Amino acid sequence: MIISPKHLVSTTLALLTALPSFLHAEPFAYVPNEGAGTVSVIDTATDQVVASLPGGSKPRGLVVGLDRHWLYVSDQPNNSLQVVDVAARKLGAAIALGESPEGVSISPDGRWVVAAVEGKNDIAVVDTRSNALAFAIKVHGKNPEHAVFSPDGHLLFVSAEEGDAVDIIDFDARKQVGQVAVGARPRGIGFLPDSSRAYVATENANEVFVIDTRNFAIVARIKAGLRANGIAVHPGGKQVYVSNGGDGSVSVIDTDSNQVVATIPVGQRPWNMALTPDGKKLYVANGRSNSVSVIDTASRTKLRDIPVGKLPWGVAIR
To answer: Tag placement on the chain: N or C end, fewer CB within 10 Å?
Structure first.
């Protein structure tokens, strides 16, 4: 059968019209609301919530698949990684991980999703080609909270929440190769774009530790606000942002001087954060305000608060 160009165009337009309208804009910020069991979808062009997706019973860590078709969300009470079909707005497979999975990260090539599993003290690794558990890597520290890939994909840094340390995994070798003692209750982790340094927030020490990834040595300790928690690194590599849960603020660290150069008020109990790909806006999940604060990174001011679901835990932007 010969299909005319006119028929092909009309068919394509019909298929596009049938898709959820929020898929046509880019980029989106995805916000797991652990108290509501939902994921709020924010159009970063308008800063409006354009959809609410199911996220399991208590969604926490979240990453966006490379093709943006799937979300991968840690569902803590169900001990699983919940796969969410974005286009269909429904839950897909639930991948068993072990007791109490928390933070998740995706490899730069999109092949692997990793989750820190607190109850097993290991890192579960899911193959996104099959959406199935591939293997797990044991860590030495107790109660892993976040597992974050370096931008080059070679290392995984894992915050051992009850071990006051960062476990370092050689992902290519599938094993732990180092451990760095840091302050009490390490939480969020972020890397400079060239993977040369990692920034680790320590909640009970109110500090950010800077680690050289070549020799696993601490090169700086930066005083942050009360209950330093989430970390986000500007794509230009000149600023690092840390959320201060006890102060309701975000501190801006200059990476040349390793000094805090600004503090920006946000909502109550800011947790995890994400930047738009161009680095112009930072989205901050405010757990006790049920909102996301939007920060203009150039002026270092809060633009607005966006109401989301109950107890937002973080933000993911692909």
So the answer is: N
